[in-house]
Amino acid sequence: MKKRIAIFASGSGSNAQKIMEHFKYSDLAEVAIVLSNNPDAYVLQRADNFEIPSHIFDKTVFYQTNEIVDLLKRLEVDMVILAGFLLLVPENLLQAFPNKIINIHPALLPKFGGKGMYGDRVHKAVLAAGEKEHGITIHFVNEHFDEGEVIYQGRFAVDAGDTLEIIKFKGQQLEHLHYPKVIENLLKKYN
Ligand code: GRF
Description:
Elements: E1 3-8, H1 14-23, E2 29-36, H2 42-49, E3 54-56, H3 59-64, H4 67-74, E4 79-82, H5 91-96, E5 101-105, H6 120-128, E6 133-140, E7 150-157, H7 164-189
Parallel strand pairs: 1-2, 1-4, 2-3, 4-5
Antiparallel strand pairs: 5-6, 6-7
5-O-phosphono-beta-D-ribofuranosylamine (GRF) binds near residues 11, 13 and 83.
């Protein structure tokens, strides 16, 4: 049986897109559902383009009910992928998928992570700190923002004159290249 992936995303979903592309013809796994807390998220359109079902939920449902866990269980999901998902994962979801929830962060954690550190804010902070190196982190999710065990880090040089757009682009290229592969490698270890 193919492994089943659920993707949580709050925004554009370019990483979700790469994951859906990667597993479209895979014998190993498939994206079973895309979930979002944001009804206007472009990721929902992307899911539609792949004919992958999506589900929109609000914070109350996420934090005060077991609906989302029940849905994932019903769909026999094996792995939960966060791809630009801005809400903290609640305890019931963590317990239902121990070591099976993965996130991607656009910086070299533990630097430039934590609550409020997302999107352009991360890259602005990196430039303001005069970092010579920047990168991405793929990590297991725990009850704190951006703190679970690191699975993979990709690095690149911040060159003199690099703008926010440039370092953001360099990071995105790395994310798109590595996130699907890291997911695939983890799934191969599941029985
Ligand atoms: C990525 O930079 C990821 O590292 C972070 O949120 C961003 C999502 O971008 N968690 P996209 O929606 O996949 O384009």
